[in-house]
Amino acid sequence: MVRFAAPLAVVSDRLLAEAGSLEAIDDHSCRYVSAPDAWEWRAIAVALVGVPYTIEGPPELIASSRELAARMARATEGG
Fold first, then answer.
1. What is the DSSP string of 66-77?
2. How far is Cα 51 from Cα 62, in angstroms, rounded to an integer?
3. Which of 13, 61, 55, 4 is nearest to 31 (CA)?
4. How far apart are CA 35 and CA 7, in angstroms?
5. Strand, coil or helix: what is 54?
6. What's the whole-model pTM score?
7. DSSP track, 2-45
8. Which pLDDT score, from 0 to 100, does residue 38 have?
């Protein structure tokens, strides 16, 4: 689950949610829920939405996001 700090209308324009569901929490935030899938792909997809977000779970999505962030940081070292 991923909680976005943006309205549902903003996120739905930026996230193809075919592999899950997007639901409003309130006027200023929404949640994306999806079934187990390719966690790296999911980590990239939610990051590309371009608004602040929090990964609430599962642990596999958290771990994939951390690994991708570290890999991207290493790719920019020395450049």
1. HHHHHHHHHHTT
2. 17
3. 4
4. 22
5. strand
6. 0.88
7. EEESS-HHHHHHH---TTEEEEEEETTEEEEEE-S--HHHHHHH
8. 86
